[in-house]
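Workshop exercise sheet. Pairs work together: one partner reads the sequence aloud, the other fills in the structure field after running the prediction. Swap roles for the next sheet.
Pair: D.N. / O.F.
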Amino acid sequence: MRIMKTNTAAGRALVRKLETRVPANFARVAPVVARIIRDVRKNGDGALRKYAREFDGVTAAQSLRVTEREMDHAWKSISPDLRKALQHAERSIRKFAKWQIPKGWMREIEPGVQVGQMVKPLASVGCYVPGGRYPLPSTMLMTVIPAQVAGVKRIVVCSPNTAQVTLAAAAMLGVKEFYRIGGAQAVTAMAYGTKSIPRVAKIVGPGNSFVTAAKQMVSAAGDCAIDMLAGPTEACIVAGTGPARGYAADLVAQAEHDPETSCVFITWKKKLTEEVKSEVEELSKSNKIARQALQKNGVIFLATDRREALQVADRIASEHLTVERIEDMEEMENAGSIFVGPNSAQPFGDYISGPNHTLPTGGLARLRGGLSVLDFVKIVTVQELSKRGVKKLAKSAVCLANTEGLTGHANAILARTERA
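Structure field:
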C-alpha cells in the first residue's frame, strides 16, 4: 500500500478522487447485457437454459429449479460444525432484522383528524446469491432472512454454480423457490418472468458487473425495483493506535473479494502508517487477489490529526468503516456499516454479528445504508377525519386548493363541510 499525506497536493487530489467516485461504469458490459435481456424476454426458458448451459454448466438433464430434496440432502451432507455455524449466523441476522421492523401507528394530529401508517410487506422478491469466485451462503442468509422477517410471501433465489453449502443454507431457511441460474439472465427472468419463473416485485443482492448492469437496466426501465447498485468491495479504517496487524488483516480480508476492492487506512500517527504497511505486505503474500487489490487500490493516508482523519473518512463514504471509539462513530455521517474498536473485525459483519453485509458502494453510502427489513416493506399512510376534523381543516385546505387553481379539490372539501 502506498502512503500519502493529506496535506500535500497529491494527497488532496486522491481524497477528491475517492470522494467523487461513482458506482461502477457498466459501459463495457452494457451491450452484452442488453442482448441477454432481449433474448430472455423474447425466448423465455429456452434462453435461460441456453445461458445456464453456456455459463453455469447446467446439463440438459438438470431442471433449472432446485428441488427441495436436493436442498435437504445438502443440509444433511455438510459437517455438524458448519450446520451450527449457519444456525448461529441465522439467529443473529434474524434477531437484528426483527429489531429493524418499523411499526404501524395511528395518532390524532388535530382534534377529529386521525393519521397514521401501515407497514405492508412486498408481495414478492428475488434474492440474487453470487456463485462465482467463492460460494456465498452468507449472502443467502443476508438477503432471504430480512425478507422473511418482513413477511414477504414469495421469495425467489437465483444462484449459479450452486455449492452444497449454499443449498444447505437454503434448506435451513426453508427456501421453496430456488433456480440454478445466474448472471444478467437470472435478473431478467426475475424482473420480467418466464413460463417457469413468475416475475417478482423487487430484486436484491450483489453480483458481478453483468448482474449489476442488468439490475440497473431493468430498474431504469421502471419494470422492477432493486435495492442498490453494488460495485467492488470497499474498506476504510481510521485509527491512531494499534493493533496494526488486526487492522491490516481487515484490509486484506476485504481485498480478497476482488482485484478492484478499494482499501483505505487513515491515521495521524506516522509510526502506525509504516506498521500497517508492513503487516499488509506480510499478510497478503499468499493471497493473490488481495495483493492485486492492495497494490492497485490500497492507500494509507497520514492526516494531521484525528479530526481531519475522520473528516477524510466521511468524505470517502466507504462501504465498511472502522473507527476506534463510539465518539468517533457519532461524528460520521457517511458509511455503509460501522465497526467500532479494535476487536470489531469487519468479517464479523460479513457473517455473523447481525447487521446486513449487503452494503452501498461507490459513494452511495451518502444516500442509504445497507440492505435491511425496510427494503422489503412499504409504508402506507392512513388518514381519517370526523365531522369535527373537517371543520378544523376545511378553510385552510380550500384556500390552498384555490391558490393552486384546483377548483375540483376545493369542491371536494366543501362537499364535506355541508355534512359537517
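Discussion prompt: The radius of gyration is 25 Å. What would you look at next?
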